[in-house]
């Protein structure tokens, strides 16, 4: 009897929770709204905290840094701790640096397959480019407001290493507040964006 | 010369005089059967006709040269006007590649297969199979504790970057970057010198161009299929190449079409000119309906020679029919001789036939000897040409001496056109002085003529193709100018072992950019076994345990778990599977494997590429000569050897023809003065041809040699006709016959001088100069010298 009661309670809980986390197809209005809101964004600057939960490490790896974006194709990703390093993307060109080694090098994005993949993702989120996102991922809405989306890669190549993404938007829907990358082996990376400033003038030499 | 008796042909005339219907019927039947037989002819349109089959290596070398990686491919170089924008370049290349695929032109490739997880898996498997003694020393240095710490720190820091997620697997499987040793070996597999990969596309080093390759099944020698193929390619280029881009297409099919188009254009021009000119000559000189029969002799001869070839060899080289057809089209001097003699009349036609038969037979014998010598050629196409031409000449002889005398009626009053040229006798001294002066000038000019034995000199490469070649070489490096080294074994294992030995000899002196070899990435199974055993023993000597400890200790400082590098440590303990061709293909290297591993019938060849530099080829020929089963072929050396072989062949039968013709003339005319007279047109024609070419700065090539034989054959006929008739009383029919047949020859073969194709033009120039000077020598110098002789 106790067991039956427990099962009933569990069922009730599940039924109650269902409306909260039901995965639905994205309504065109939601994506349109997000895209429209993001459309007004010309520049972004934000601090971020990154947590990597990798099975090859005993503890999560935490790092901090800052992101700058300027439409249409300039982006700076800068780690400040534990190791000062980062990169700048400008069109098809890029430059990366590493403070400890003192190494700075320029590169062409199209010649570096991994960097190309990374830059496509970063620019897509910074611009809220839903046309590209829908082409690359199956999008489901986990939460309407603030928007929380779950993305599963369409291409087998990407699906080979990336299981899904969770993208959380700001309350006004103008920018991404958090990203979670879940890998096939259970490892995941969470990035939280803090102190985001929209359309604030950026130093000219930052890119 | 004795008085003409009623010889075989005179008697044959009398025999058929009462049986003309039988003769005509039999002739028509023969021509009809020949036409029917010739319809069964199958043309062999390939280079085999011009490859020596004397057991030399030329034919083998030629076949091996066709196995070079880019020889069989159609190459498209897509150039952008904005070199910085590689994304646009790649997109345009993809669009054009898709267009080419839709046009079904073959297997289209814009880059190597995507190097994914399989490739990185391959790197791990490859290392134990490839590592030699020196490599293990490098690994030992790379696994020193200090290096381990440094590498782990680098890996740890890389993981914080956004691209770090892609490096996680690599860090676990190869934390010390041992696989760099394998990646280094890929430098020996760069088939395109100035190429780098951008988004897995072949892009030029300067970023201006993308390369698309097409594997097509259309044979390069098939001009009709080549045209369809190139039309489809051109249409795809036209519709798919966006503004701001341009495409350069290069393939063997383009050369085939350029040559076929040039020959077609040339033949149209030459045939039109020839027909108009020959018709005009006949109209001016023959002026009779029976002249039609003279015109029909060469046409019938073509049918008979082709029919005979169909019975003898069902597959005939196109060059035999082409060149032989032109030659036989000019064989009208026998018919012209009998025509004028019959038109003059005044005697029993049987006697006329018998009288004309002797010089005609002598001339025909000289021509048969000229072509007969070609039977000794090492080129199968030349031997076929000999049979074809000799059959045609025999048929021309029979038609002229047996059938034609019945068809040509005497002209009213025996009058010949232009009064039989009786009045055309310029002053003897003036003729001889002019002749001597011309000969002296031409003899001097002949000493300055330059000889070019290269096959390239007679190959048509249009300006646009030369430009395309230069553009491709400038952008991509020399794609096709590579010498090929084949390591051949009864199976893949023995071929790979031999290939390794070749590599060991070449690698010390040739850098990776110049040397392309599979040996560094795919040794023989025996070599791999040896390497694996060395690998296992190396790590079992306590090194694996020590490294495991170092990794655990240094890794712990960065927070790595104890199992973080388990996949890597497993490769130090286990013996991996051997590498093979299928493994390389699965790793995304199938293009390279297919280009360099060439299975054959009962053997396998593995290909190595080196620069085609004469001094290098000479050195490698010596160094690799001691390795049985290794075959070095180089396009430049092959071209020179082929040119040399053809020159040797032609020169030999030019000399033999000269000697045989001289002996024949000597046997027929006996007296040295008459022999000298007969040879006047030949000597004049050859000296003037060489002299004028020298004075005009024209080079003498292999087709000029072939044409010289023709000049000897034709001019000696003129000499024989003229001297025979002068000896027999000096009537005018021989002058007319020489003039008319000479003019028709000039109209036919000489018109080739206007051709664009170098081979046809060379023949035309030679004939124009040789026959063009041989005719006046026969018409004016022989009579002038003969009068002096008589005086």
From TrEMBL, chain A:
Matches recorded under Pfam families? LolA (PF03548)
> Which InterPro entries does its entry note?
LolA/LolB/LppX, OM_lipoprot_carrier_LolA-like
- Which stretch is the leader sequence? 1-22
Keyword annotations for this protein, in alphabetical order, are:
Lipoprotein, Signal
Query: Coiled-coil region(s) at which residues?
Result: none
The record's section on Gene3D superfamilies has: Lipoprotein localisation LolA/LolB/LppX
Protein's name according to its UniProt entry: Outer membrane lipoprotein carrier protein LolA
TrEMBL record, chain B:
Kindly list the residue ranges recorded as spanning the membrane. Answer: 21-41, 267-285, 292-313, 319-340, 360-379, 385-408, 429-449, 650-669, 676-696, 702-724, 736-757, 763-785
* Stretches assigned to the Membrane transport protein MMPL domain: 197-410, 648-785
Q: How does it sit in the membrane?
A: Multi-pass membrane protein
Keywords in alphabetical order = Cell membrane, Membrane, Transmembrane, Transmembrane helix
Q: What is its main location?
A: membrane
Is the keyword Transmembrane assigned to this protein?
A: yes
Q: Which GO terms describe its cellular component?
A: plasma membrane
User: At the top level of its lineage, which domain of life is listed?
Assistant: Bacteria
Q: Where in the cell is it found?
A: Cell membrane
Q: Which PANTHER family match?
A: MEMBRANE PROTEIN MJ1562-RELATED, MEMBRANE PROTEIN YDFJ
Its recorded name reads Membrane transport protein MMPL domain-containing protein
Q: Which organism is it from?
A: Geomonas paludis
